[in-house]
Amino acid sequence: MSFFSYFKNIFCFENKRSFSVEEQVQEYLNKEQRQVVEEIKEIFSEKDNFVLFVHKNADPDSLCSAIVLASVLKGLGKKARVVALERINSQSKKIISHYPYPVSYDYDFNNEESDDVYLILDAPDFSSIRPDIKIPEHKKIIIIDHHNPSKKKYKSEVKFIDSNASSTAVLVYMLVKFIDYRITREIAVFLLLGIVADTGFLKRTNNIDFIALFELTQYECINNISTLLKKEKDMNERLENLKALSRLKIYQFGDDLLVGYTYAGSYGASIALSHMYAGCDVIFVETRGKNNMSLSARSRRHLENRLNLATLIHNIARKYRDYKGTGGGHRTAASMQLMVSNKISINLEGQIIHSLEKSLDKKSKVIKI
Ligand SMILES: [Mn+2]
Asked: Which residue among 231, 261, 262, 309 is least crowded, i.e. fewest CB within 10 A of its CB?
């Protein structure tokens, strides 16, 4: 070994002398984000009434983020309520039956006297909350989210958006720290539920998640959080998974990429996950009901710089405005919904494979099984 190659292998680790959660949170936020949270802090102190909207079929990340902020606002002496206009999912139902918290299922948007400030949690705009509502023009709207930002603009909006964050709950944690509100056990439990659920039981995390977990796990054992969120697959779900595996079509792109496309009756997200475990780099699961059609898409994380599923799916969904097509999400996890009768045939598979060939700049071949 030469003198130089010997030195090449010596690393220099710089030591950090002190550590504080507050400092880490400050360091994580960029200048623009710090300004935004400062603005949110001001709105919280100036205004009195707040409504926290969760997205349709709200998952634990959306619901728990809303509950935490409602509880913080109430602690600041404000009126705040959590509103779910299009239901909450089964995991979220389990959470509020275990840790009860009032959730309203309707809201009157026509009350002109109302000075409610609207908060949107875990959604880029109102289209994922309820598409057909009319928002009064000058309404103050605060959006806190980690999905791809939407092109829609509201007249008076404040956006705390970070598409690199692994959950909305961790953004809410940073906001709570930033406004210097004391973490309570209630806040810690709901934040943990949001973070653990949206990171897929801590499989998709960033450093800042561990900073949050360091503080939050002092209030509740992480195993209790995971146990509450875990759900056993019932017989139907397992059968749908197995049928989907047997219908799987595999496309190979270049030497190293396996893309799966399959069909099922329901459980799209769960089926997508099993196919990733089974070996697909990218998977699309198409599910059709009598009057609706959905697509769940997932890709391995190392592909996030090569392929943006949210954009790919969004561009296809917008061709189906007649069927109220909506689509988007994250670079590695996205979904699409159409309101269309199952009598109408739509070749989504062909369109998906075609757009993949374009964005990966590679031809595909079908692998026979
Ligand atoms: Mn989320």
From this structure: 231
